[in-house]
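Worked Example 4.2. Read the sequence first, then its structure tokens.
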Amino acid sequence: MNSVSTRIIVSVGLVVAGVGALDSLLSREWDLLVVFLLSISLQLLLWLRLRANRIPVTLRPDLARWLEHQSGRTGEPFDDLVDRAVAWYQSGLYVEDPVDG
């Protein structure tokens, strides 16, 4: 689940790694600088993935618990379950009319 707290933790990690990279640059610890830059790039990729074009949706607590349980039981990602459930619901709502007119 892409919660705000996950994005905050990754953002704080980016700040900490940035400070470490700056410190290693100033102290001319090149191997440590490479490690910090690699860490920054991986965290930045994760942060960008968390910021994907998904619209935050609020679910009833009982539905969210059921989805988390289903996700844990089947191993399918939470977002995939939500996508499939909404697509299934949409296909039931918008049945194409076989007769034009």
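Now turn to a second chain, presented in exactly the same format:
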Amino acid sequence: MDTSDTTNPNGTEAKDQSPAERARRLKDEGWDMLRLAYGVHRDFYQDAMRKFREAEAILRAGEDREGLVDVLGGMASALRVTGDRSVMKEAAGYYEEEVEILRGLGRENEALEREVGLLAAYRDLVTLAVEGAVDYLTKGINLGRQRLAQAKALGDKSLTAAYCNNLADLSALLASYDAEMAESHLKTATALYRQAEDLWGDGEAEGQAAARMGLAETYIRLNTNLGAARELLEKVQAFYESAGHRVEYQIAQVKSLMAMLYEASGDPDLARAFREEATAMFRRMGFSS
């Protein structure tokens, strides 16, 4: 699915561009391909990765560390699309390098923003049960708590919401590793998702949708507020099916959660129907589940 060509959008030959300009163009194209990986078909991540790696090579050859910002984050995001445990540590490493560069440049607030991605990578490592998963879980929760406090101190509502949401994800995962305290961890996740939903509000609908999906899942796992969980998922589905916001992957995720919900509420036929629909959507996009 490689869509690369030899000209930029203005028709200028790529060979006539400076290395920095070419790297910037490749970075932008990489992010475009990455959006297609979630919106159309998973395999677009390969095109994204090729473009990011080419941009990385140009920038490292020119010792342009600052230029690597966004390229490293793109590479990490592309690797996360694979769902392959063998590359998730590499993805986390790219986020870590990006944060290190920003801190070295004195861009502390931007570094704080990028560590949201690092927490998501730690979550992936735990979800995939990579060796040392519990260590990543502990590291992620400790880092998340520190950064959440910093975001609150800055008065940045959006960033605070992002850290609440990521900490909620990690708390929900902790419930799977600590059966004795599972209910407590899920209730902690519930409170954090609610904070994230409120902080993002209607003005940041995509973030709000992420919080609502997480909140619905914790309700289902706690086997409580199932009616509210259904309403939350219906709102999320409506958002991701709306013009300009359609994301097939997220719609499939909603259907998977609907299957969980109806399983929990004692309706196996509806649960099976939603599960089959979600599976079919994931497979059309190149995801196994």
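Notes for the reader: The chain is about 75% helix and 0% strand. The first helix runs from residue 19 to 39.
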